[in-house]
């Protein structure tokens, strides 16, 4: 199917939902809180509307996010059979949440996009979206895709269909993508959405505790080791770096999600304006950049590390060794200053 990528108004979303019954909901690889939150919120909204949704994840989320998939009909692409994939391809329409380029789901899963039978819609808040869906709702100013999804519903007078299950996903997405509401992306509208969710009776304390107060001993020891032994402040620069090798991860029985938020710990150090967290995986080095003030990391990541994201938060990757990757970063830091 060719994709014309019409940047439609939010009001047109209701028509697309009204005209179809079964929906495939997808999100990006290594799904974070906003990915899981926005996808599950969309799922429960569609269920409330009497629709038949299915969530497809490229890979397994971290253990800490699995409880938020309770009650959701979902599949993990890397575990799917050919028949299951064909069934999902044949659904009436698809909604792609929290990513704006097919590369974000991985090369194998992205191949099914051209086989989708019905119209496809992207809802996302990252900059520079590519053309891979029939329609797109893109708003870089939104704090999170979860917040943007609520705005879409509200603009269409559909927010009455937000039940506690849907609200839980929206809150999860906003909470995690705003660093507990402290990033510059938080606006009055963000707090408006939070007010509406709390009025439904949402237990925000439970969600915060599930994400931030459910640590294993290994996880805490790994984070302590990373700060005490692997944190480096670059001389005469407002830049901090933590780099963890596969051996470091093995030592503390690393599980997916154990290092979530470590990059923000670097940025919290007095005088630090730019933070890099690098973690060595089997398929290369994954990079997380954060910044504040007048320092921006998205273009730097895009130019040098096959990444991108927001001004103050971006990701990247390197196929070189961890040591070579960090050395390369240090050789390029003047681009950031």
Written account of the structure:
The chain is an alpha/beta fold and 337 residues long. The protein folds into two domains: 206 residues, inorganic pyrophosphatase (n-terminal core); 119 residues, Roll (Diaminopimelate Epimerase, Chain A, domain 1), CATH 3.10.310.30. It is 37% helix and 19% strand. The chain has 13 helices and 13 strands. The strands form two sheets. It has a seven-stranded parallel sheet with strand order 1-7-6-5-2-3-4, with helices on one face. The chain has a six-stranded mixed sheet with strand order 8-9-10-11-13-12. Helix 2 packs parallel to helix 5, helix 5 packs across helix 6 and helix 6 packs across helix 8. It is globular, with a radius of gyration of 20 Å.
Entry keywords:
globular; 2 domains; six-stranded mixed β-sheet; inorganic pyrophosphatase (n-terminal core); 37% helix; seven-stranded parallel β-sheet; Diaminopimelate Epimerase, Chain A, domain 1; single chain; 337 residues
